[in-house]
Amino acid sequence: MGDATAYLELAEQMEEKDLHYSAVLGVRKRAIRSLELHIERGGESDGAAELAEVTRKVLNSAAVRTTLIDVMDAIGKSYSVCEIVWARIGGALTIADLEWVDPRWFEFDKDNGRHLYLRDNAGPQPLRPDSYVIHMAKAKSGLPIRGGLARLAAWGYLFKNYTIKDWHVFCEAYGHPLRLGKYDASASPQDRQTLLRAVRQIGVDMAAIIPQSMEVEIVSASQAGSDKLYEGNARWWDEQLSKGVLGQVATTDAIAGGHAVGKIHEAVRDDIRDADAEQLAATLQRDIAGALRRVLFRADRAVPLPNIRFEMEDAVDTQALLNLIEKRPPGLRIATADVYRAFNLRQPDDDEEVLGDPAVATPPADPPVRIAASRHDTPAPKDSIDALVDALISEGDLEEAMQSEIGPLLEALAGAQSIEEVRDILAAFADDPATGPMQDLLTRSTYAARLAGELGAQVTG
């Protein structure tokens, strides 16, 4: 009929009486709180930069930021109206606050259904310019008054209310036996009233009297499983409300499917949140930044409106960032501010105590290398075994034995043309049982060292 008053009252009652609808709608309204507000100037002129800075200060102020939930009231009721509170700070006007206005004070144009007017006894009145933030939610295409979620959720709210009412009646009578009174055909109206009063008192006082000619029968209640009917119906409607408001049920209702299903449904919810944020950004650009431009700048100055958007801050893999810092390639510069922000740390002041740099591990020292030298240049050996080793190295006996032993093998490997030839050469060398000079030298040296150990004698070269 063109009058949305009753619809708006129903939408308000739904939020107050249905706990589930109020919860999921509150999540939808507050989803933009997880997004970061970005305001960029719309042009390169000084005026564009000034307007962007003023808009940024207004929208980031605590008073205005907290009232965005009132602007998002349009998600349920199709539209919301917040009055702009102007204040003079210094020599300039600015927006100090936004005050929510009851949507029943407004009405749509009865011809086109799109232009909003102030409801008045004298008839619809046009709204004062630069005085209101009017947000129209678009859950579906069509007239603005039909774009809210309350119209979509009204059927679920209605049928769920019927179920809850019947459930309460059932709970009130659950377990109580049926008292059935029987009277004779000749019973007078007074007798019937006496019987009715008696069966009622049996259920409350557990005591009553009736004439001897009347009969009261107690019928035991058999209602096993009936309670599941009401609970199941109420839960089903809750799931439908979750789907209508959030686009999914996995993050609000306990369903089978586990973590994977929740992740998929969370992505659907993110899409709805981003769409709401995009609509809200357009409203703020038109009614907040536009009002500031008309109030602060002359009409002949063509100052472009700033670009307003809400974005989800990208999550940083802290472990990958640590690895990048530790093993960054030469020339890669990493801002310390980004590191502080990634780990949610603030940059300490100059006079604050801070943690010291981690200690750098000292690489282990290189093992000592025995250098062959003449007997006159080397210090005295620690024991006879050291003397024997030094003598074998310094006199060249060990090197000569090694050259005689593996020299032919190295020459054969150097002349090999393929891996198969290398394998054949190594196999032939391993199968040769002949005792070479290297083995003979080691055998004699081992025998001398063992004999010196048993007799306590000194081994010399």
Report the radius of gyration as a whole number of Å.
Answer: 46 Å
The biggest sheet amounts to: 3 strands, antiparallel
Helix residue percentage: 40-55%
Which shape, going by the Cα principal axes? flat
Unreliable spans are: 371-376
- Helix segment count? 16
Q: Helix-strand pattern, N to C?
A: HHEHHHHEEEEEHEHEHHEHHHHHH
Counting copies of identical and different chains, the oligomeric state is: single chain
Task: Give a quick rundown of the structure.
By secondary structure, the chain is mostly helical. The protein is 50% helix and 11% strand.
Defining traits:
461 residues; mainly alpha; 3-stranded antiparallel β-sheet; two-stranded antiparallel sheet; 16 helices
Characterise this structure.
The protein contains 16 helices and 9 strands. It is mainly alpha-helical and 461 residues long. The strands form 4 sheets. Strands 3-2-6 form a 3-stranded antiparallel sheet. Strands 1-9 form a two-stranded antiparallel sheet. A hairpin with a 7-residue loop joins strand 4 (106-108) and strand 5. The radius of gyration is 46 Å and the shape is flat. Mean pLDDT is 79; it is low at 371-376.
Map the helices and strands.
Layout: H1 5-17, H2 19-30, E1 36-40, H3 46-60, H4 62-66, H5 68-71, H6 74-77, E2 79-89, E3 92-101, E4 106-108, E5 116-118, E6 132-136, H7 149-173, E7 178-182, H8 189-204, E8 215-219, H9 226-246, H10 258-296, E9 307-311, H11 318-326, H12 336-342, H13 384-394, H14 397-414, H15 419-431, H16 437-455
Antiparallel strand pairs: 1-9, 2-3, 2-6, 4-5, 7-8
Helix pairs in contact: 1-2, 1-7, 2-9, 3-10, 7-9, 14-16
